[in-house]
Design goal:
eight-stranded parallel barrel, about 20% strand, about 25% helix, alpha/beta
Length: about 500
């Protein structure tokens, strides 16, 4: 998802329309706060219990975990399936579920829900061309369906949401992305591979776990014009190929689309990483779909579902933003953004998620940075992923404080009336909130409104604002015992006089 900066960036007018001060009645109640950190949860067993406790304390509702095919299956490097192994049977002794079991149970023990991404790469023997020695290459849909059935059978009593495959528009997860019969002349392949995987896996999951929610999509937000079989496909052309339509949305009935049958799901999962684009800014390349381009993404999905090219409930998908974050500098001085920008962008995205009735989840990726592995000049430098709310050593970034108590003032340019919005995390029941203001020359903050959150900790107030003033909110922890005094907490501050946001003015710690 590394991509150069655009010279001219268009303003996301359509995104802003998702969340105006007059739209509070449309806000989605109970918008989920998600978390994902595979490295800590699956690869750091000593640290995992403490980390999961921190997630619960920070108000996380649901944790995303990969159920990775090749990691739990036997004979991962073999060209042929091990004899006597039954991939559809979760009790087959060939499976090794222990790490995944421990992660699921640890999260649930702290009161959070789990959503499982059922994904490859699989074992080498799951490829339809194992002789290429690439387990990502053309995975067999029938074998994947058996694996998906095994996952849902094993975890059906602990999980009620499954996501089918991770980022199928990237060659690191699914190959080939394209077929290129001549130099720089390429045709998409991965959308058709993915359609087959979804069509096979969804009924297998539902047979094993009736009533479970199944999501397709899980796309990365950026791609490029194909010049090789490994070039990532941008999400908009990927979706058109997935639905077998051309650029004008006319059906295609030849080639991989001959005998087309649509895939379907209960909702659409997506990874709208902004990279260096904030939630108020659209990518001018209309093939891409980042956090500022969600109206574009929904428009594509709505055209495809209305035409019956993808199956959705009522021909209308809800969005689950199941992986989202911003890498920071420090530590990544190549493509990371400033620490203050990370804090601002994450709050703006949280407000967007709450404000739109079609966005049901926003999952932060990651909790802690991965170690920086410097590899030289250019894009490969600073390898790893550094979008955590904490540095790799556990030290908090400024965004951690605003993640636990986000605060946004939605105030359009030139206006004095808008909306104050925030959340108290964890959102365990209704809480009292005091909105505070300080004017230039005043010595302290003054209470201006008493509010009460909903059961998920969210609150909002439509009101008038002073452009020269600074705002924050205060709340108390509930007392934990008969002799325990509740602790007062303060949010970050929104200084309307100096904040550079166009409309969604987010707090700084």
């Amino acid at each position: 998802m590394r991509r150069g900066r655009a010279g001219a960036v268009a303003l996301a007018v359509a995104v802003l329309s998702l969340a105006g001060p007059t739209a509070s009645a449309l806000a989605a109640p109970g918008s989920e706060v998600g978390m994902e950190d595979e490295r800590l949860l699956l690869s750091e067993p000593v640290q995992a219990p403490q980390v999961v406790s921190e997630w619960a304390d920070a108000g996380v509702d649901v944790v995303r975990i990969h159920a990775r095919w090749g990691s739990v299956s036997p004979g991962a490097a073999r060209m042929h399936k091990p004899a006597h192994f039954h991939p559809g049977n979760p009790r087959d002794p060939g499976y090794d579920w222990q790490t995944l079991d421990d992660a699921v149970d640890l999260v649930r023990a702290k009161g959070m829900r789990v959503m499982l991404t059922v994904t490859g790469p699989g074992p080498l023997w799951s490829s339809r061309k194992p002789g290429l020695h690439d387990p990502r290459y053309m995975p067999d849909p029938a074998l994947f369906a058996r694996f998906a059935h095994a996952v849902a059978s094993r975890y059906g009593d602990r999980v009620d949401r499954y996501l089918i495959w991770n980022e199928p528009n990237i060659a690191g997860w699914l190959a080939p992305q394209s077929r290129c019969p001549r130099r720089r002349v390429c045709f998409p392949v991965s959308p058709h591979l993915y359609r087959g995987l979804v069509r096979a896996a969804r009924p297998a999951i539902e047979a094993a776990d009736p009533g479970a929610q199944v999501l397709l999509g899980e796309l990365a937000p950026l791609g490029n014009r194909a010049i090789s079989t490994r070039t990532p496909i941008a999400p908009v052309p990927f979706l058109r190929a997935f639905g077998c339509v051309d650029a004008a949305y006319h059906p295609i009935r030849t080639g991989a689309c001959a005998g087309f049958k649509p895939a379907s799901a209960d909702a659409f999962g997506y990874h709208p990483h902004g990279v260096d684009h904030g939630p108020e800014v659209a990518n001018p390349d209309r093939d891409q779909a980042q956090i500022g381009d969600l109206p574009r993404l929904l428009g594509v999905l709505d055209r495809l579902t209305r035409a019956g090219r993808i199956g959705a409930p009522g021909r209308r998908f809800d969005l689950y933003l199941t992986e989202f974050g911003y890498q920071t500098s420090p530590p990544d001085h190549r493509i990371g953004i400033k620490l203050g920008q990370q804090a601002r962008y994450l709050q703006q995205a949280a407000y967007l998620s709450w404000s739109s009735p079609r966005i049901r989840n926003l999952t932060q990726y990651q909790w802690r940075d991965e170690p920086v592995a410097y590899r030289g000049k250019g894009d490969p430098s600073y390898a790893g992923w550094q979008s955590g709310l904490r540095y790799v050593n556990g030290r908090p970034k400024p965004a951690l404080a605003t993640f636990e108590a986000p605060f946004v003032i939605d105030l359009a340019p030139g206006k004095t009336r808008g909306r104050a919005w925030g959340q108290v995390r964890p959102g365990a029941g209704r809480r009292d909130v005091t909105l505070l203001r300080i004017r230039p020359g005043e010595r302290g903050f003054t209470p201006i409104a008493e509010l009460r959150t909903d059961a998920d900790g969210y609150w909002s107030r439509d009101m008038s604002f002073e452009r020269s003033a600074t705002y924050r909110f205060a709340y108390f922890d509930a007392a934990t015992g008969a002799y325990t005094e509740p602790m007062r907490h303060l949010s970050g501050v929104v200084d309307l006089g100096s904040d550079r946001s166009r409309r969604w003015h987010a707090s700084q710690p």
